[in-house]
Design a protein that fits this description.
single chain; alpha/beta; globular
Length: 478
């Protein structure tokens, strides 16, 4: 196929849908805005999981994590499927993938050509003389980059600190200028975390600028597709790890000279399960029949989808099972284990000052309204949110009789989807190990269990690692 385009894929870690081109005026993102001006800003793009490895496994396989067994964070798949890069290489593409994998499996051989940095090669016009895909992961916005400096918040439960040997971006965003979402308390600690994330985005944006400049200098800019997206939301409570808007509603910016109109905006529903088939469609390469997603660009562009689906399962040592279906108007959540609180202890999550602030204020009885929604001892079995009036998903309409028909429709759509993919989340992890689906890492993560301080405990004193840990009600129902 002549003139098959090159592809640059940029993934920003834990950034969320936060950039100037998406209306976040408090962040400095001239280069992300520059990419949006060159191409299309997708306003309805969604991750399938609000955490790293399951989300990334979707991007590279074109399949849902709960279908192939990559749904637990973390786990290791015994028999990984082929990646979309296998298909590209079979079609004559060169694949350079030097940074983060994190798919919950080790890819099988032949999935890439090199693992070396490529930006200088691109700038010098020294990329291969064949179509290529070049990937880069920008990690400065990762959750851990929001952790406190040494000496901050002394004595708090579970807090690790930023490694002082690693340079972090200077603090320049004024915490007074950042917006605080309604599900978090408006305190200096929370504002400080949000401001630090904004400074990290500014550093990521500079890195994006370096890549765009390299594309411009390469001599092949007119035949190069540039894609920017994020794996999931920023590392704050009810964002990363949680399939609400802030956890799964993501940025997607794509430029394709001569094909995508500069400065365009699309409200087409896009899921990260559509990313792999779309890259193959752009390359003019057949899409495997086992892919769950469909192309939204290229030679085999499919009709737009009506729904996107997402989930949440074990997060390190913290078990759960949550499934989500969303359309343009409503966001429906099914909590299979409502007896497990949202705020169960997660060792990694406890490192975030905002999480500690939530615990402290909840223990003192100082949370109310939307800022308290993350802290009760139980979850509702179902949640339903009207995205037009409640984009942050804090006013649950599941029991509102005026929305009973919507709840029923969305629930039926979720049932159809889960049956279609044969959701492995319904199978205990020990059974998946016994069936040879995943490696046995149970004791590795069970070892992380530990109690919260008594005053912080809600529901179970420690995280629930698996359904067998539930005291009395093991039904998984409401």
């Amino acid at each position: 196929m002549p003139n098959r385009p090159n592809i640059v894929l940029i993934v920003g870690e834990d950034i969320g849908r936060i950039a100037g081109c998406y209306g976040a005026g408090y962040v400095r993102s001239p280069n992300l805005d520059r990419l949006a001006a060159r191409g299309c800003r997708y306003d309805e793009a969604y991750a399938t999981y609000p955490v790293c490895a399951p989300s990334r496994s979707t991007m590279v396989t074109g399949q849902y994590p709960m279908k192939i067994g990559t749904h637990q964070m973390r786990s290791t798949l015994v028999h990984p499927p082929r990646l979309f890069t296998h298909e590209l290489r079979d079609a004559g593409y060169y694949v350079s993938w030097p940074t983060k994998l994190d798919f919950n499996f080790e890819p099988t051989s032949g999935w890439r050509d090199d693992d070396q940095p490529w930006i200088d090669r691109l700038r010098a016009g020294a990329m291969p003389g064949q179509p290529w895909l070049a990937y880069v992961n920008l990690a400065i916005t990762h959750e851990s980059s929001m952790w406190p400096d040494e000496g901050e918040y002394p004595g708090r439960e579970g807090l690790d600190h930023w490694n002082p040997k690693e340079v972090r971006p200077a603090r320049t965003t004024d915490p007074a200028d950042v917006p605080v979402p309604p599900y978090l308390p408006d305190t200096p600690v929370v504002r400080g975390d949000i401001a630090r994330h904004a400074d990290n985005i500014a550093e990521l944006d500079w890195q994006v600028g370096e890549i765009l400049d390299a594309v411009d200098a390469s001599g092949v800019a007119d035949n190069t597709v540039v894609v920017f997206l994020s794996d999931h939301g920023r590392g704050l409570p009810r964002e990363k790890r949680w399939p609400y808007s802030a956890g799964i509603h993501m940025p997607l910016l794509i430029s394709w000279p001569g094909v995508i109109e500069p400065g365009s905006v699309s409200d087409r529903l896009v899921s990260w399960v559509d990313v792999a088939p779309t890259f193959l469609s752009i390359a003019g390469t057949p899409i495997p029949s086992d892919y769950d997603g469909s192309a939204f660009l290229g030679a085999t562009e499919a009709p737009p989808r009506d729904y996107v689906f997402a989930g949440r399962d074990r997060m390190d040592e913290s078990f759960d099972r949550v499934r989500v279906v969303r359309d343009r108007h409503f966001h429906y959540v099914r909590n299979f284990y409502p007896q497990i609180p949202y705020c169960q202890r997660n060792l990694y999550m406890e490192n975030m000052p905002t999480m500690q602030e939530l615990r402290r204020l909840s223990a003192a009885g100082d949370l109310s309204g939307a800022s308290a929604v993350f802290m009760p001892a139980r979850k509702p079995a179902e949640e339903l949110y009207d995205l037009r009036s409640d984009p942050e998903c804090v006013h649950n309409l599941a029991l509102d009789p005026h929305h009973a028909d919507v709840r029923e429709r969305m629930g039926e759509e979720l049932d159809r989807f889960l049956a279609e993919i044969d959701d492995l989340g319904a199978c205990p992890e020990r059974d998946l190990v016994a069936k040879g689906v995943v490696v046995d890492r149970i004791e590795e993560f069970r070892a992380r269990l530990g109690p919260l301080p008594a005053e912080y405990q809600r529901g179970y004193p420690m995280a629930v690692f698996e359904p067998a840990d539930l005291a009395d009600d093991q039904s998984g129902g409401a």
